[in-house]
Amino acid sequence: MQPIGANPWRGEVTLTLNGRPFVLRLSLGALARLEAQLQVGTLVELVQRFETGGFSAADILALLAAGLEGGGCDFTASDLAQADIAGGPVAAARAAAELLARSFALPEAKDAPAEGAGTAPGSAP
Fold this sequence. Notes:
Blueprint: E1 13-17, E2 20-24, H1 28-38, H2 43-51, H3 57-70, H4 77-82, H5 88-103
Antiparallel strand pairs: 1-2
Helix pairs in contact: 1-3, 3-5
């Protein structure tokens, strides 16, 4: 069974396909295959492609397919291309960009202690 809630600390994003929520996550292997498939030399180039808006529909599909693979889903890229994506192409692009961003950044914690909080009395912050 596919988990419903994504864990941002693991770089996960949820995407609803054909009425069912799926958790997407990029593994290192999926990222390596993605680099080759999208013909980018580095992960930085891949991230820049999304940050600058220079991505294509094929880039979105490839990134989402890699995320589905990393999340343990057996959807193929062909299945994904035929799927009904909740929110349509805009939601797919947002999920792909968020997946990429979460893979390389820690989420902000709502309840994180303030800087220096939680240190022992008399210790340096």
